[in-house]
Every structure is written in C-alpha cells, then in structure tokens.
Amino acid sequence: MKRISNWGNTPTIQAPLIPFHQLRQLKEILRHTPSVIARGMGRCYGDSALNNTIISTTDFNQIISFDASTGVLICQSGLTLNAILNTIVPAGWFLPVTPGTKFVTIGGAVAANVHGKNHHVHGSLSHHLQYIDVLTSDGNINRCSPEEQSDLFYMTCGGMGLTGVIIEVAIQLVPISSSYIRQKTMRANNLDTIMDYFESHHDWTYSVAWIDSLAKGSSLGRSVLMLGEHATRDELSRRQSKQPLHRRSKRKKSIPFFLPTWALNSWTVRLFNMAYFHSTQKRASTTIVDVESFFYPLDHIHHWNKCYGTRGFTQYQCVFPLHSSKDGLTQLLHNISDSGQGSFLAVLKRFGKESLPGLSFPMEGYTLALDFPMTPKTCQLMHDLDTIVERYNGRLYLAKDSRMSASFFKTTNKNFDSFCLFKDQIDAIHQFESLQSNRLGL
Q: Is the pTM of this model over 0.70?
C-alpha cells in the first residue's frame, strides 16, 4: 500500500500501485483485479487516476519505432512527453499538441485528450493520432482510429481511462527547423481588449494569455498575451544557430517542502499580479525563446504544487461556447475579484472548432484555467462559478476536476448518456473506474 495523490495533493488515499513491464503482466493483473484505473505520472489534478487499486504505466515506456523521414512515432503508453521530446527534437520534429507540462505520459495525454496553445489551429491531440491500442476488460487488444473502431477511439480520447488501458500510441509529429519560438508579447488592459487580440491574431499558431483574476472595474480581465511560431534558422542568433535543434537544459529549482497555508493569500496574489502585469512592456515586443520556456515554464520548478501547502489545491478549468464566452468570462471574473479569492495562476486560451463524441473537453470558444487552494471559501466560490458555467452553457475539464457534482456534470455534458451506454457495452463488468467516475456517476 502507498500513500497516493495526484498533482493537486487532494484527495490522498492509501492504495496499491502496481507496475508492469510487459503485456502479459498487465493481463495477469487485470485477470485478478475487479476494479482498477491506470495511472501515468499523476499530473491530473484531482481523483481521475485514483482507485482502490491503481496500475502504474510508467515502466511500460519504450519507443517502438520512429521514422525521422515521415515524423511518425509509435510508442508504449507509459512514455513521457519529455522522453519523446529528447528523441524527436534533435531530429527536427515536435509534438503536434502539448499541454503545459512535459512530465505526463502519452497514454495519460490521450486519456485526457489534451489541448495546447494551438487548439484554434490544430485542435486537440486526438486529431493527430494514427491509431491507439486499447486493452479492454474482455482481455482483447483493440486497435482503433478515426477510421477503425472509431467509437472506441473517440470514447477513449478524453475518456479518462474508463474504457480500458491504453497500451500503444501512434502519433504524427510536426516538422521544425529549430528548437526555438518567435514569441510576441502584448499587454491588454481589460477583457474586451484581450479577446479582441485573440481574434485579430487568430493566424498565429500558438496563443495563450496570463490573466489577472483580481483586477476590477475598467481593468477587469487585464492580461498579457503570448503569441508564438516555431522560429526558422535565419531568425536565430549566431549562438543559437550553431545548435538550432538543441534542447537547453536549465538549472531547475525545487520547492523542498509544503509552504505554510498563509504564504499564498489574496494580498500576495494581488501583489504578484500587479507586478507581473506592469513588468510587461506597454508596446508589443518580439523575442526568440527556447521551447522549454514557451511551452513548459512551470516545469523549471520541481514540486511547485507544494506552494499551496498541505491542504492541496485544484485547478478550475472551464470552457464557454464562443457566442457566450464574453458574458460568461465577465461574470466569472466579477465573482472571483469580488470574493478576493484570486488565482495565482490564471490562463486564458481560445479554442477552435471541435465537436467530438465522448467526454472530450474542448469546444469552440474560450477556456479559463484557475488554480485555487482547497479552503472552505474557495470551495464555495467554485460552487458559485459552477452556476455561471452552467448558465452560459459551458463545462469543466475532467483532468483538472476533484469536486464537481454528478448533477452538474450530467447537465453540462451532452454526451453523458451516450458515453455511459458505450461503457456498459465495452466494459460490462465496470472493471475500469476511478474515484472521479464513481463520484460523477460514470
């Protein structure tokens, strides 16, 4: 038995964490385990990778093949994005979609159908998969894709491990000529301006905004927008051009212990937000940055989740459809700023068109992600935010959730019934379940 929690450090449970190296071992484990969930690096925030018995995929982590001429990578599901990048970047390839951390497994990324800063252009991860192999509760390995067993493919992408264990992934990569990003930074004084910026810069491949969740009045929603494109070799400095595909290894900092609960409060968050906003130039500026800084800034700080103390934290990530995004975000930010329970990390992104079967999160519109410590006040605030999300036809991201109610989830997810029906067919014994799926009635 091990003490296990995911990235939000809440909830924490005692459970066996069973590794495997070969498929025959995995099949033997499943043969004797009536209820189980697969877990990779544990970077989901809540309870979607927790159960009374947990299978760890991290030792099932080999590259099966990589064609450097076509950019097709086939690998086992426990391989991390960091390990993938170590292989593909020096060969001139990059991930077609990446979340904000490279310390997740490719199987976990598929199970959450992760999105990135380029969703408005390239969609979510499922759009770039040639196939996935899924081991289901009947002991069969099913190869599925958008063309073959498409129902299993789409129910698994975003299905949070509830259809079976993802064991193999084939992904189409994107070519790059350098490991650098041409980044343009723009300061927006309010929500109207930042949304105008997103729309007027829709042709940029990557876009993401930090947003001040405590700003009020005419400054409500003030933000800093970061746009990005893969830099060409002629855009690099002389030093950078000597090793254009080199991944920079930066000195990493670490949070060695849980900070006291008072360290992150409304005053420290307010001061940080003010300092960060005003540290950005008023005029747009363009720089060349490495991919690590652009895509994975928090990965430079090991155990940054300990900043929130032993009480743990959660990320509240919602998405609103495009037609109601402005009204929904305005109400959300008003509630947060009025409560004084600001988020230390608040990120706004624009999603492109996407309407998939199953539980996949993205839809065309705007998504806002906010980190909150788990306190009675923030729990009440998030309950109030749920009301706004439901009113404006939004929904929450399962990979970040640890506290929404079953009734809210069912109301805000139009594919709830169809997913449950499919799960009853593909996993009739309900072998694959998690604390989250039990909480939400899945």
A: yes
